[in-house]
Structures are given as structure tokens and as C-alpha cells.
Amino acid sequence: MKSGFFTLVLAAAFAVSATAQSQDAKSTSNNVSITGEIIDVKCYTTGMMGGRGPEHEDCAIACIKGGLPVGILDEKTGDVYTIVPAKGTTGANEALLKFVAKKVKIEGKLLEKGGNKILAYSSVEEAK
């Protein structure tokens, strides 16, 4: 009996925690459009080999192929958004390789939590 009660209390605590966490993640906008450069987040953040631009393209491609996070550097604000696939789209790393170090317009849903800025992208195209 004690075991069943403990399991029930544990399950209820988990459900409350999961609900609170999902409410913590706020969607700042259902649909956003960001124009900027596709980067690998690690090199940009650390400044490794310049961290951006055409001179960094080969390094960024290698890092992204290796599994490091891909991001976009917003040309207007200078903010960096880590890019993940929206439901129904392919993985961001593989799909965005052809856009590395290029200016793109990317659309999707913006999510923020704990200082992280995530863009669940739904479409991307090279910008002019």
C-alpha cells in the first residue's frame, strides 16, 4: 500500500513539474522572420577563427557536420538564435549546411527559456 501511494505521489509531482516547465517556456511570437548569417554557435561564441563570415565557412561546416549547434546571427539586433527543426521539418544541421556563412531569411517559432533563444524553423531561403 505504501509503495502504491509513493508511486502516486511521485507521478503527481512529476506531472506538476512538467506542467510548470512547459509554462516556463514562453513563445514570444507564433511566427517570426529573421534575416542574418547562418553560423555555428560554438565558433561564433568563442571567436574561433573569426567565428563568422566567408573566411570561416569551411570551419563552420565541419563543426556543424560534427554535431555542434547551428544558429543565426540576426543582422538587425546582433542576437544569436540556436536553430532547431519545427515539427515536420528535417534536422537543422543537415538542412542548413548549404546556407552556412550566407545571409538568409528564416521563418519559424521563437522560444525563450532561461536566457536561451531558440528558433524552431519552418522555412529558410537565401536573402538578397
Architecture overview:
The chain is α+β, with helices and mostly antiparallel strands and 128 residues long. It has a single domain, classed as OB fold (Dihydrolipoamide Acetyltransferase, E2P) (Beta Barrel), CATH 2.40.50. It contains four helices and five strands. It has helices spanning 2-24, 41-46, 57-65, 92-96; strands at 26-40, 70-74, 80-85, 103-113, 116-126. Strands 1-2-3-5-4 form a five-stranded mixed beta barrel. Strand 4 (103-113) and strand 5 form a beta hairpin. It is globular, with a radius of gyration of 18 Å.
What labels would you give this structure?
single chain; 128 residues; alpha+beta; 4 helices; globular; disordered N terminus
List the helices and strands and how they pair.
Layout: H1 2-24, E1 26-40, H2 41-46, H3 57-65, E2 70-74, E3 80-85, H4 92-96, E4 103-113, E5 116-126
Parallel strand pairs: 3-5
Antiparallel strand pairs: 1-2, 1-4, 2-3, 4-5
Range of helix content:
25-40%
Mean pLDDT: 81
How far apart the termini lie comes to: 67 Å
Contiguous uncertain segments of 5+ residues: 1-23
Structural class of the helices, strands and pairings? alpha+beta
How many H/I helices?
Answer: 4
Q: Might you state the CATH topology name?
A: OB fold (Dihydrolipoamide Acetyltransferase, E2P)
Count the E strands: 5
Strand order of the largest sheet: 1-2-3-5-4
Order of H and E elements: HEHHEEHEE
From the alpha carbons, calculate the radius of gyration and give it in angstroms.
18 Å
CATH level 1 class label: Mainly Beta
- For the record, the count of structural domains works out to 1
CATH architecture: Beta Barrel
Strand content: 35-45%
Could you give a short account of the major beta sheet?
5 strands, mixed, barrel
Q: What's the overall geometry?
A: globular
